[in-house]
Amino acid sequence: MTVTNQDVLAMLSELVILTTLDEESPQSFKVRAYENARLALEVHGADITDLTVGELTKIKGVGKATANKVRELVDTGSVAKVDALREVYPPAYVELSRIPGMGPKTLKLVRRELGVEDVGGLREAIANQTLRALPGLGAKSEAKMAKAIERLGLTGKDRPTPIADALPLATRLVADLEAVAGVVEVAYCGSLRRMAETIGDIDITVASTEPGAVMKVVRNHREVADIVLSGDTKTSFLTSTGLQVDVRVVEPEQFGAATLYFTGSKAHNIALRQRAIDRGLLLNEYGLFTATDDGGEDLEPHEREVVARTTETEIYEALDLEFIPPPMREATGEVEAAGGDGLPELIQRSHIRGDLHYHTDRSGDGRSTVAEMVAVAAAKGYEYLAITDHGIDLAINGATAEEMLGQREVIRTVQVDYPDMVILWGCELNIGADGGLDYEPEFRALFEYTVASVHSHFDQSPRDQTERLVAAISDPTVDSIGHLTGRYIGRRPGIELDYDVVIEALAQFDVALEINGALQRLDAGADVVRRAVDRGVKLVINTDSHHTSELGRMEYGVLTGQRGWLPRDLVINTWERDRFLDWVDTHRG
Ligand code: DGT
Ligand code: CA
Ligand code: CA
Ligand code: ZN
Description:
By secondary structure, this protein is α/β, with parallel strands linked by helices. The protein is 42% helix and 13% strand.
């Protein structure tokens, strides 16, 4: 198996996680060095696997130690340092670090003092009330962790994997399989293609006339930790984190029927099969076939004829249905709509005309300059953009009013080079514990666009959180609400809200609700989006980019919108420039 750029990046990501545990800090010099190198290599673009150590270190941000590890991976297929760290910090231990309050220092403490090695051990320590005896911990942290373990669903064998962990892996596998001789097409299917927030397992469907060659590549793939099932046309394996991957090979002419079946959901498939039966047809993973003759008598298998099977579109058409985008296939009314009044004109990636949540190196956690960020947006053909660095109330990263005014000058200077694009001087405001916002109201009103988000106080009661949000929404200087709950899927639960109340306020004050396209967030989630759509709330799909490499997230935001039945016209950043700018003016009232 040849090592690819993606393998190198995955190795460095793992190194960042393991080194953070080892050095007991995400701020340690080594962690930052690996992180910076990873980012530098990610945006480098060209193939990095045939570079020498000398050439690698010439890339800004890549040091000698990292360069050596990249070469080691390319030359030998593994990195001794990573292997050694895995020994000390096995996957079950790494998993513990996903629990809020379980920082690297605390982890080491509970390991040393209580022998806690995994989530089971932590549950026990909580149950025995031994955790609270340790310095810095107490009954309160025990209760918090118990709740987090429960809410994150960390127990049980079929623990769901966050989409952020599954999607990049699936994308790498698809690319590797596309390169195998005889392969015509490859797609990931299942809950992942439907953009579920967490994934049980990854299902990959391959169209090829040579299944043997595909199976061989899968069995020998770098991601394989354990083979579960090895057949002629299907292989199932586990990755080192315990995630299962099913790879199935099908004949190219039945690819549509297979991807339709394996994309699911089960309930959607059942609805389609029933529709086929109603038309005297039979639908399965091999195709759509005639099942009865003109007189309604059942046909023998050899008498059946193929009606459609090569593409999903043909199959939907033969069932008198519009094509249903995968994220909608959950049997929540999409089949009835597609066969009746029609689906809404759903949001598509090509409709997006601008990105309205964008950080630069003015934010402490942003890494690219205004000029760099604007250049990639322009290359994407965007017509408008809002630079929204963090407001002053964000500890560490926030900018003072004076710094923000300086930023305005920087933006004005860059604007000169882009006459076809409007670059708005904006701000990501912080919603305080009781809904207060950064700066004086007069100063806030100067910003040409704002997104207000929760970055602190995740522990208040649902009632207080709801009031807090409503207070921010009703502020005349707020144009949109960013990453509504603040969750990191599978890692940190978001704030709890009364959605009806929040959605009502968004509608009343004409404030847009963001779909944040970062895979860890996808916030607001599809279920909330759908409720907002039903109430006519406007939405905005953003990348929340902190680096030029993150603009591709727009796609995930759009797919989340589709999962929430989001029509194009409710999305403010699909609007023509003047319509969008008019809205910003008028909705502030
Ligand atoms: P997951 O993996 O639990 O997140 O969810 P899925 O939807 O990926 O489910 P999975 O991996 O068990 O199966 C993939 C697809 O295959 C599923 O969405 C629909 C189809 N499928 C699997 N088993 C059945 C079945 O018993 N009946 C029908 N109609 N479809 C099935
Ligand atoms: Ca699956
Ligand atoms: Ca499966
Ligand atoms: Zn942000």
